[in-house]
Amino acid sequence: MRQNKATEYHLGLLKGKLARLRAQLLEPTPGSSSSPGSGFDVSKSGDARIALVGFPSVGKSTFLSKITKTKSEVAAYAFTTLTAIPGVLEYGGAEIQILDLPGIIEGASEGKGRGRQVISAAKTSDLVMMVLDATKKAEQRALLEAELEAVGIRLNREPPNIYLKQKKAGGMKITFQSPPKNLDEKMLYNILRDYKMLNCEVLVRDENGKKPTTVDDFIDVIMKDHRKYIKCLYVYNKIDAISLPHLDKLAREDHTAVMSCELDLGIMDVVDQAWNELSLQRIYTKRKGIEPTFNEALIVRRNATIEDVCDQVHRSLKEGFKYALVWGKSAVHNPQRVGLSHVVADEDVVSIVTK
Ligand SMILES: Nc1nc2c(ncn2[C@@H]2O[C@H](COP(=O)(O)OP(=O)(O)OP(=O)(O)O)[C@@H](O)[C@H]2O)c(=O)[nH]1
Ligand SMILES: [Mg+2]
């Protein structure tokens, strides 16, 4: 296909307008009577939330029943689950809320079925677990991804490396760190003008070796309040019903796990992988002279320090902090005496000594 500069240019503007209008449609101003953009009424609990998203009858409810004590109705017909069913997965002292959601269909983002509610619920999660039927065609995955994309969910992606700051005055200043491949100044200028952002500073930081920035990336940056960057684990269920070469191919895809809920195969591997994707760490605290308790953990993000651990225990713990003793993967010797800046690792045992 011939890529014509003028076509690219008009398409860019058109996409900018569409993104703006779509956001208005999907996310009406708060307070309006009907708000189709809101999710199901389930309050967040635990240390993280995983949303099970998929077409009907792929085995989402079966999976929930396997990994939590919650029973969500399972049946051979489509749309068995009609609302969001929360369950709690206990993982080595952490509590993860698992949301079993109704199956979504093509066109869900436009409001088909209860699609918009389902997708809004997914938008509030820390990890999307996309449950796929291994016996179905490969297109299913792309179709679901497109539905999530349409409401501003970006799976397994980093926000684009573009700096955009609105100013009070001074006009527009657009800078490219290196010659742009897909963008030009006039195009960005017109899109920004369409968003009434007449005074702003833009810096496109295209990096060598990385995918060059596109106009879609630029629109995502303008619309950043409506975009959510979420990790996704693709889980192929029903591997009991496919050939081994096919299984082999699926299992090697990125961010992918395979299982059979029916035969109880691979389920714990899926849970372990989901835990890894969440990038959370369990820290067990220990009081002096007492064995640590491993059924209750403090949950911190990756690269968290002793300071973050202190903050999790109590806001004011830091003030009286003298040192901490650490046993585990982050310690050179057990225990190691460390300060507030020490970076902890998953399953470390920490004892905080105060003045
Ligand atoms: N062969 C096979 N069938 C399975 C497996 N897991 C679930 N099923 C069957 O698939 C059907 C649908 O399962 P559900 O758990 O209700 O599916 P769901 O994704 O929750 O469906 P909706 O709620 O309608 O969206 C049931 O008949 C299950 O017994 C599996 O690993 N292998
Ligand atoms: Mg279900």
Automatic annotation (TrEMBL):
One annotated GO biological process: positive regulation of cellular response to amino acid starvation
Domain TGS: 279-354
GO molecular function: GTP binding; GTPase activity
Domain OBG-type G: 48-279
Origin superkingdom: Eukaryota
Pfam families tied to this protein: MMR_HSR1, MMR_HSR1_Xtn, TGS
Alphabetized UniProt keyword annotations: GTP-binding, Nucleotide-binding
InterPro entries registered for this protein in UniProt: Beta-grasp_dom_sf, DRG, G_OBG, GTP-bd, GTP-binding_2, GTP1-OBG_CS, P-loop_NTPase, Small_GTP-bd
Coiled coil (residue ranges): none
Name this protein carries in UniProt: Ribosome-interacting GTPase 2
Species in which this protein is naturally found: Gomphillus americanus
